[in-house]
Amino acid sequence: MAHIPTVSAQPPSSVISPKVFIISMFEPEGQVWHDNFAQSGLGNLSSQAIATPGLSMLFPRIFCTQAGTICQLTVGEGEINSAVSMTALILSSRFNLTQTYFLLAGIAGVNPRHATIGSVALARYTVQVALQYEIDPRSLPDDWPTGYIPYGRKHPFEYPCITYGTEVFELNANLRDVAYSLAQRATLVDNEEPRRYRALYSSMGTSYRMAVRPPSVVKCDSATSDVYYSGGRLAQAFENTTTLWTNGTGAYCMSAQEDSATLEVLVRAATEGLVEFGRIIAMRTGSNFDRPPPSLSDWEHLTRTDQNGFHIAISNLYNAGIEIVRGILDNWNCTFEKGIAPANYIGDIFGSLGGHPDFGFGSITGGRRLKPAATVGSASKRDEDSWGRTTLASVEMARRRQFGVKGAMKM
């Protein structure tokens, strides 16, 4: 595998305004862009190597084309690494990200009910599914389907009555649909081992028909967890969590570690006017199934190497991703510069960016967008008091609604 070259940084006074920023999570996801980008005709992705304080010690540089049109950052694996690296990027004085499209591009576990190994998924929702109580299921009643219990509740699959704000993020569905159309131009690769492993799911009925098909581009959602989970019960539990926490509109098909953490940083940046949250694309490619076929146990499935779609997932990450990047650049002046207006709610479960979430308990700010930190002290005392009373009242109302929710998902 070729190594990403190290190039001298540009003068600090040079501010870069990327049109597309590719966010990778670990070395192979970033390397595939550098190994193949030259053949895209879009420039040299390693022309600029920019060291920025606060990035991962493993990935201390951001890479950009000479014109700064396209940049790529590897943030590091897991929620903490991705959040810290993204914060370092957002706060860097070297970049103007106000018109930048972010392509979050990583590999993932894949739900065989919605896609297969090597498939490409574009998400509308990311759900932080492991943000729950966890009890070893061996110490619970035999008929309990999982040991994950929402905060403030006593049973699985009830809506949590304590929320942190990072449970669910909703992205621009119109942009997701455009990215889906662009990604479908890609020629996706496959190989024999995943093909043979897919065939083991053929006896599971029509609800698993996507598992046995070749890789394709699909529209479905991601579950975020630092726990690398595998197996029928855990996968089904988090699938149900995704459905419940999105009020029935989300469909979990990819497992990921970083997306929710990355999106929380981008929500906060959007409240400060540093980025536009409607310009985010979340893409994952399936490297392994999240649950076994009928012939194998959870443990056997986890340790089998013949299902491994790592290489085709990495390849298809680039194959689909470069079509999205090219489409944004080719249509910048006519379409993407002004942005793809969302028709759906976008943002977090709190309504931080304004509007009313179509999941959770509604906006805690009464539908108002949070003020940038720099403007809080400049408002009049009367305005501040009014804002404070409105916010506190909304929070209290939301909390009361939370504790009043009765429904639970049926198994």
Automatic annotation (TrEMBL):
GO biological process, one term: nucleoside metabolic process
Short name of any one Pfam family annotated for the protein: NUP
Cellular component GO terms held in the UniProt record: endoplasmic reticulum
Entry superkingdom: Eukaryota
GO MF entries: catalytic activity
Annotated protein name in UniProt: Purine nucleoside permease
